[in-house]
Amino acid sequence: MSTVRIEFPGTRFAAQELPARACLPLHLTVQNSPLLFGCRSGLCGTCLIEVEGEGDVAEPPSAEEIEALDIYAPGNAKARLACQLVPLGAMRLRKIDSA
């Protein structure tokens, strides 16, 4: 099984090695990452992040995620909802606070 490295720059959290295509809310907790997950369906904005560099994800944002991002991070092209990401390769994720 292939793994992907998820880094959290600027935090005290160590990088995590997760299975490729992992569901992030199932693997990332308050003990091993700075990310929090609320609804886990892309509606609440709790897991709002920026993907630094060229993070490799399986799919572009869905129409629903784009709508949520327009509310929680208008104009931020790097913003994503971590609960909606499907990692295929190494990623650097930075938590951002929703308004």
Shape: globular
Q: Give unreliable regions as ranges.
A: none
* Gap from first CA to last CA: 38 Å
Order of helices and strands: EEHEHEE
- What's the count of strands? 5
Q: Would you give the CATH topology?
A: Ubiquitin-like (UB roll)
* Number of spatially distinct domains: 1
Largest sheet: 5 strands, mixed
Rounded mean pLDDT is: 91
Q: What's the alpha carbon Rg, rounded to whole Å?
A: 12 Å
Helical residues, percent: 10-25%
Give the count of helical stretches.
2
Strand content: 15-25%
Based on the coordinates given, report the CATH architecture.
Answer: Roll
Under the CATH scheme, which class? Alpha Beta
Q: Write out the CATH superfamily name.
A: Beta-grasp domain
Q: Structural class from helices and strands? A: alpha+beta
**Strand ordering within the main sheet:** 2-1-5-3-4
List the SSEs and their pairings.
Layout: E1 3-7, E2 16-19, H1 24-27, E3 48-52, H2 63-72, E4 79-81, E5 91-95
Parallel strand pairs: 1-5
Antiparallel strand pairs: 1-2, 3-4, 3-5
Would you give an account of this structure?
GO terms for molecular function: 2 iron, 2 sulfur cluster binding. It holds the Pfam family Fer2. Residues 32-87 form the 2Fe-2S ferredoxin-type domain. This is Ferredoxin. The chain is globular. The chain has one domain (3-95): Roll (Ubiquitin-like (UB roll)), CATH 3.10.20.30. The chain has two helices and five strands; from the N terminus they run ββαβαββ. Strands 2-1-5-3-4 form a five-stranded mixed sheet. It is of the alpha+beta class.
